[in-house]
Each structure stands twice: as structure tokens, then as C-alpha cells.
Design a protein that fits this description.
The protein has 83 residues and is mainly α. It has one domain. Helix 2 packs across helix 3. The radius of gyration is 17 Å and the shape is globular. Pfam families: DUF3562. It comes from Ralstonia insidiosa. This is DUF3562 domain-containing protein.
């Protein structure tokens, strides 16, 4: 059985993949080059037999980590005064 990345080398599959990317990009109002890596990561996660729920949890954790990193880089303490 071929891997997901090997399958994407088939021109028909590549075109179908990009059609989905363009559709999602239109719906969320982002450029396709922003949507494509996220869509690819979603497909790879799901082909690894993860559930959609697992993917949503991983995506939320990734967003939280990204926010914490940007807050740390700006020098402000996000939790100051909460304790």
C-alpha cells in the first residue's frame, strides 16, 4: 500500500487535493498557500488512523502553544495577576 505522500505524486490526486484546498481557502477567506499545509497535515494525521477528535485536540494544543510562544516573545506575562 502506498503512503499518502506517494499518492500525492499522481497528477489526478494532486489536482483533487488542490481543488479541496481552494474550496477551503475560499470558505475561510485565507490564501491557498496558508490552507495547503494545514490540509496536508490533517490528511496525514487522519491516515495515521487518528480520529477527528484527536486531530481537533492536537490542533487546539498547537494553537495554544503558538499563542504562548508569541506572548513569551513579546515579553508580557499572560498569567500575571491570575494567581
Amino acid at each position: 500500500m502506498a503512503s499518502a505522500t506517494e499518492d500525492m505524486n499522481v497528477p489526478e490526486l494532486h489536482e483533487a487535493h488542490y481543488a479541496y484546498v481552494r474550496d477551503i481557502a475560499d470558505r475561510v477567506g485565507l490564501p491557498p498557500e496558508v490552507v495547503a499545509p494545514v490540509f496536508r497535515e490533517t490528511l496525514l494525521t487522519l491516515t495515521a488512523e487518528a480520529t477527528v477528535e484527536t486531530y481537533v485536540v492536537l490542533l487546539a494544543a498547537k494553537k495554544t502553544l503558538s499563542k504562548l510562544k508569541s506572548t513569551a516573545a513579546s515579553g508580557s506575562a499572560p498569567f500575571r495577576g491570575n494567581y
